[in-house]
Structure formats: structure tokens, C-alpha cells
């Protein structure tokens, strides 16, 4: 890698363009004069850009390069893309309230499709009057995943899907989106695509061997968090695959599908109520929806400093993206219990004879203790954490850990913190003890060098669990001097991103960007509990942020428990919002609570029969309201004309 120092003197006189000459024998070239220069260090070689105007790098025997600044923009572009081995494509940081040029280009073509389809539906308008319609899928785990699929299938059957410009989701809805966009032009063949998805979702799932390999692959990244663990141990249980594609792999600029946008939130901004928490990821860029700060999607997760890429990281794959978007299945304690249970199950599987045989072959010295002993300590430690969360005495697990560690070390090492210091009646003190105890256990295990590689991975997993670290990635805005962006987003080297459902369980703010000029929002609500919470909260948040959004009138108490299947909210200079609760009196009759209980968020994967039944219920919300949908689409056209 290169080390580049920032120019500290301004150019004193203009420099004319020069074609780049060949370097002299001593490896130096002179093409102009400037008092401003950058020093660049690499192995002794000459770097230049043949045939390019305006910039050249020339190295002398001291391995120093003088960079003549003819055009600062060229320099910035060049320094973003150069690498020690070969040029790397670098996503630039973009600070502007405008759409990515490729999104704009796609929308031009997509609007043509929508225009033709509106004509087919007898909704007449000019090309300039084509309404911008966004379909939003809320969170709700696999209920949202299957519910969105059922809704989209029915939109396809009712010949309405080609009216949609954008498809955006949070949490479980993004699991459905990820499956759909594996197939190019899925919206033109949804009858066959949905069969493939249903077959997979009701199938056997991912093998333990593949999960373990994926976990180790994620560990090789610069940064690992619980999102990686959640992807491997939880998301795979629901989506039944490891999707190694990336978002940029999936997308084709000639696609006939709605433009996809995945929504998450910035955890720090949410907690500190400082900055812009709304974060979106599209095929072209990722960034803050309201602040207008973006980076190329392929570079999201790479390390930046002052807008320049310092270290490339692999683009996040679709499995990780689904975990990043979909991890809020319950409150923190419940998720922690659920995740610890998954970790314990994972470790138990590792102790299976087949896995032990594989691990035993990896031992460097036959005299080393059996690998089973190390994993037994980890499993006891995870179960101890779970017992403490449940308020149960973990003394027997602590004793098991101490006994095994004593056998491993031959009595040479002892744990520092006695179990008597654990105070289960005080939650904060118990958490502090377990953090110390966990570090103590891993310090003892670290003396077993033959196990070091896996040990470091598991140590990091337990650290992330203790400190509740999710979605940690490099901050692409780090160290930038940009007044248009909230200062909080510029200070940290890393940011944590998490499920948007923890703040608002629907991706309204991806659709409410002024640049997208959305006329009609169709909100499919798959939330558990209050069926109006998302639209109410969206209205409140928009009011505080001075974003145009229709008022949401008071809903009668009776309807909160037994909602209708179709609500329309309108406001002046605001997009119309259609709100469709999944379970309602029309498609469920008096059995709404039974349906909600059957499809709870916090449960195992659905059977094929459950998937089919839920898709039918979700589909009825579209088929029963086809004429109402057409009416509101027509009204959006009328609003455009005015």
C-alpha cells in the first residue's frame, strides 16, 4: 500500500497541461513546476499514467515520488483508485441531495414500463405525469418474508406489479427481497419464481459444515460482530441458504423489476439522538437517506479516511445483508437468550463425533489434550451466560469450567474471579461479573496454542455478545471536513448498524427522500402487535423533521384490535399513504388473534402448509382491494397533473 501525505502548500502559479513523458533512466520525470507536492512511498519503481494528462508519479532512488498537481480533481480520483498491485475500483464518498446517476438512468426506463402499464389499465397520463409509487414491506421476521411474497404474487396476478417504481423493506421483508432479486426480471415470472422460493423455504436447510465454514470466512474480515453470527446461526434457519452473491452482483441495469432499497439504522445516532439514523443500501450506493451522504455499495464496509479509501474490504454478501437488516425479533434480553441458545446448539453440533474427528486431525501435537475439552469449556460458558440472564444459579457450570481448565493446564492456571462474587439479584453487577469471568476463561484457554485460531474467533464472538456489538463496519465518513453532514457521523472510525425495526418498523424514510418524489406509498404492515404503530410513528417523526406526511387520525380502539384491510391517509403536498395491516377482519374474520398467535415472530421456521396459508391471507389484502388500489393510482396521476 502507498503512504500519502496531504499537500500543505497551495499552487503558486498555473501549470499547463502536459502529455506524460517517458521516465528518464534514473526513474525521474519533470513535466512542470509547482510548490505544492505530495510524497508517496512504495518499492523502488516508477508509477505513471501513460497517455493521461495532468498528473504523474516519479520515484527516485530514495523511493520517494513527486506528484505534480496539475488538476486536483484528477489527483483525488487517482489516489482513490491506485493500489500496490493493480488499480482497484473505489466507490467515492458522495455528499449531495441527489440520486445516483445510475438510479436516475434506471428510473427513466422503469417509468416507461409503468407508463405503458397504466395505459393498459386505462389510467391515462403523459410520460411526465407517471406517478412514483413505492411499495414498502415492514419487519416481522419470517411472517414479513412470507407475507411480502404473498402480497407481491397477488399484485402480479392482479396485473398491478408493473405500477411499482420502488420496492423497499426492513427486517424480514428484506429476506423476501433478497430471494426475489436472485432472479433477473423476477417480476415478469413471479408464478415460477415463487414456487422455487417456497420449495427452498420448506426444505432441509443449510448443513452445519457449511455454516461453520461461513462463520470462519466472516471471521477473516477486519471486523466481526454479532451480525455475522446471526447470519450464520439464525438467518440461515429461516432462508435455508447461504447467499454468497452481493447486491451489485444481483442487479442488472436493464432489469425489469422495481428498484430495491434495503433499510437499516445507525445505532449510535438512534441511541444518542444525534445525526441521521436512517441508512439505506441500494444496488449502487449505501448511505444516510436524509443527510445525503453515500458511498458506493461495493465499498460499504471498506476503510476510508477523509473521503479516500485506505483499505478495501470485500463487498458484504446477501446473507450478511439479510442479517444486518433482520435481527430485531424481540427485546435485547430475549434476543440475547435466543442467540445464546443458538450458540450452545452450534457448539453441541461441533461436539458431534464427525466434527470432533475433523478437529482432532487439526491438532499439531498428538499429545495435546482432546479438542472436545476446549469446546466443552465454551459450551459451559455460553450456558452460564444464559443461566445468569434467566436469574438461575450457574454454580455447577462454573465448577465444570474450572475442572476442565485445571485438567487442560495441569493445574498451572486458575480462574481469578470466584463464583461467590456473582450477584444475581443485581442485573448490572451480574453482567459485569460475567464480562470479567469470560475474559478470565479465555485468558486461561489462550495457553493452549494448538487451538489458537478457533479460540480467537470464539473469544471475539463472546466479546460481541457481552458488549452487544451488532453491524459494526468502518465509517466511510470518518475524518471528513463536511459541514453538510452531522458532526457525529464524521468523528468515529467505525459505526454500528442494526435492524430499522428497532426505531421504525417500516422503511418510510427511503421513500420520503425529496429526490425520489414519491406520490403514493403502499405500506404493507406485517408487524406484531399494534397494526397502526408504524404509520403513527412515521407521522410523528416526519412532523419533527418537517417532512411532508399525511396526518394519521385517531383510530377507534375497536379497530386497533380488529383492523380493516385498507386505509388511506392523505395530506397537502404529501404523498398519499395506503396502509394495509396483514391480519384484519376481512381476511381473518373473528380469528385475528388466532392467526397472530399461529404466526408469531419468535418461533421456528414455517412448514410448507403454513407458508401457503399465510401467502393466501396476505394475497387477499390485494385481491380484495384491487379497485381501491386502482382508484388511488389514478388519483396520484390526477395529483401530478395539478
UniProtKB/TrEMBL annotation:
One Pfam family per UniProt: PLA2_B
InterPro entries to which the protein is assigned, alphabetical: Acyl_Trfase/lysoPLipase, LysoPLipase_cat_dom
PROSITE patterns cross-referenced by the UniProt entry: PLA2C
Top-level taxon of origin: Eukaryota
Keyword field: Hydrolase, Lipid degradation, Lipid metabolism
Domain PLA2c as annotated: residue spans: 85-642
Full protein name: PLA2c domain-containing protein
Native organism: Cirrhinus molitorella (mud carp)
Organism ancestry: Eukaryota, Metazoa, Chordata, Craniata, Vertebrata
Amino acid at each position: 500500500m502507498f503512504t500519502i501525505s496531504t499537500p500543505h502548500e497551495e499552487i503558486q502559479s498555473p501549470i499547463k497541461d502536459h502529455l506524460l513523458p517517458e521516465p528518464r533512466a534514473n526513474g525521474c520525470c519533470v513535466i512542470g513546476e509547482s510548490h505544492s507536492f505530495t510524497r508517496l512511498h512504495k518499492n523502488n519503481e516508477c508509477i505513471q499514467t501513460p497517455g493521461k494528462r495532468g498528473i504523474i508519479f516519479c520515484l527516485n532512488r530514495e523511493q520517494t515520488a513527486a506528484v505534480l498537481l496539475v488538476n486536483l480533481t484528477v489527483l483525488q480520483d487517482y489516489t482513490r483508485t491506485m493500489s500496490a498491485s493493480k488499480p482497484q475500483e473505489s466507490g467515492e464518498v458522495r455528499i449531495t441531495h441527489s440520486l445516483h446517476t445510475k438510479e436516475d438512468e434506471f428510473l427513466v426506463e422503469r417509468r416507461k414500463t409503468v407508463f405503458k402499464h397504466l395505459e393498459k389499465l386505462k389510467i391515462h397520463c403523459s410520460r411526465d405525469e407517471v406517478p412514483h409509487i413505492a411499495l414498502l414491506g415492514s419487519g416481522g421476521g419470517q411472517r414479513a418474508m412470507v407475507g411480502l411474497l404473498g402480497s407481491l404474487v397477488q399484485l402480479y396476478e392482479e396485473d398491478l406489479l408493473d405500477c411499482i417504481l420502488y420496492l423497499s423493506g426492513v427486517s424480514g421483508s428484506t429476506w423476501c427481497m433478497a430471494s426475489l432479486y436472485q432472479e433477473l426480471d423476477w417480476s415478469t415470472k413471479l408464478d415460477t419464481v415463487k414456487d422455487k422460493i417456497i420449495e427452498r423455504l420448506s426444505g432441509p436447510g443449510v448443513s452445519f459444515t457449511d455454516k461453520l465454514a461461513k462463520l470462519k470466512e466472516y471471521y477473516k474480515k477486519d471486523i466481526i460482530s454479532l451480525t455475522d453470527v446471526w447470519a450464520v446461526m439464525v438467518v440461515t434457519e429461516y432462508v435455508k441458504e447461504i447467499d454468497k452473491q452481493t447486491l451489485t452482483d444481483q442487479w442488472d441495469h436493464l432489469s425489469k423489476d422495481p428498484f430495491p432499497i434495503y433499510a437499516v439504522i445507525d445505532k449510535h445516532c438512534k441511541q444518542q439522538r444525534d445525526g441521521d439514523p436512517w441508512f439505506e443500501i441500494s444496488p449502487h450506493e449505501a448511505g444516510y437517506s436524509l443527510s445525503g451522504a453515500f458511498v458506493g455499495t461495493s465499498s460499504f464496509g471498506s476503510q476510508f479516511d477523509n473521503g479516500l479509501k485506505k483499505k478495501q474490504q470485500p463487498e458484504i454478501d446477501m446473507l450478511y445483508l439479510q442479517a444486518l437488516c433482520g435481527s430485531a425479533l424481540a427485546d435485547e434480553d430475549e434476543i440475547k437468550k435466543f442467540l445464546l441458545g443458538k450458540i450452545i446448539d452450534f457448539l453441541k453440533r461441533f461436539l458431534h463425533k464427525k466434527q470432533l474427528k475433523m478437529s482432532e486431525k487439526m491438532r499439531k501435537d498428538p499429545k495435546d489434550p482432546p479438542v472436545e475439552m476446549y469446546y466443552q469449556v465454551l459450551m459451559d460458558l455460553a450456558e452460564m451466560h444464559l443461566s445468569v440472564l434467566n436469574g438461575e444459579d450457574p454454580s455447577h457450570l462454573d465448577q465444570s469450567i474450572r475442572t476442565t481448565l485445571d485438567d487442560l493446564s495441569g493445574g498451572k492456571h486458575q480462574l481469578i474471579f470466584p463464583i461467590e462474587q456473582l450477584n444475581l439479584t443485581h442485573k448490572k453487577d451480574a453482567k459485569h461479573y460475567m464480562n470479567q469471568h469470560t475474559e478470565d476463561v479465555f485468558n486461561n484457554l489462550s495457553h493452549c496454542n494448538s487451538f489458537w485460531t478457533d479460540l480467537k474467533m470464539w473469544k471475539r464472538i463472546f466479546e460481541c455478545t457481552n458488549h452487544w456489538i451488532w453491524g459494526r463496519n468502518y465509517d466511510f465518513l470518518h475524518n471528513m471536513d463536511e459541514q453538510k453532514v452531522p458532526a457525529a457521523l464524521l468523528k468515529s472510525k467505525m459505526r454500528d448498524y442494526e435492524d430499522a425495526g428497532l426505531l421504525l418498523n417500516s422503511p418510510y424514510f427511503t421513500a420520503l427522500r425529496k429526490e425520489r418524489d414519491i406520490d403514493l406509498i403502499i405500506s404493507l404492515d406485517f408487524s406484531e402487535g399494534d397494526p397502526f404503530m408504524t404509520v403513527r410513528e412515521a407521522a410523528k417523526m416526519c412532523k419533527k423533521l418537517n417532512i411532508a406526511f399525511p396526518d394519521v387520525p385517531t383510530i377507534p380502539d375497536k379497530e386497533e384490535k380488529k383492523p380493516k384491510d385498507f386505509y388511506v391517509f392523505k395530506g397537502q403536498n404529501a404523498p398519499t399513504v395506503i396502509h394495509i395491516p396483514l391480519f384484519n377482519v376481512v381476511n381473518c374474520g373473528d380469528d385475528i388473534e388466532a392467526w397472530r398467535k399461529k404466526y408469531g415472530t419468535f418461533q421456528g421456521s414455517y412448514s410448507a402448509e403454513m407458508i401457503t396459508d399465510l401467502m393466501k391471507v396476505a394475497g387477499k389484502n390485494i385481491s380484495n382491494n384491487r379497485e381501491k388500489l386502482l382508484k388511488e393510482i389514478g388519483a396520484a396521476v390526477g395529483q401530478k397533473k395539478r
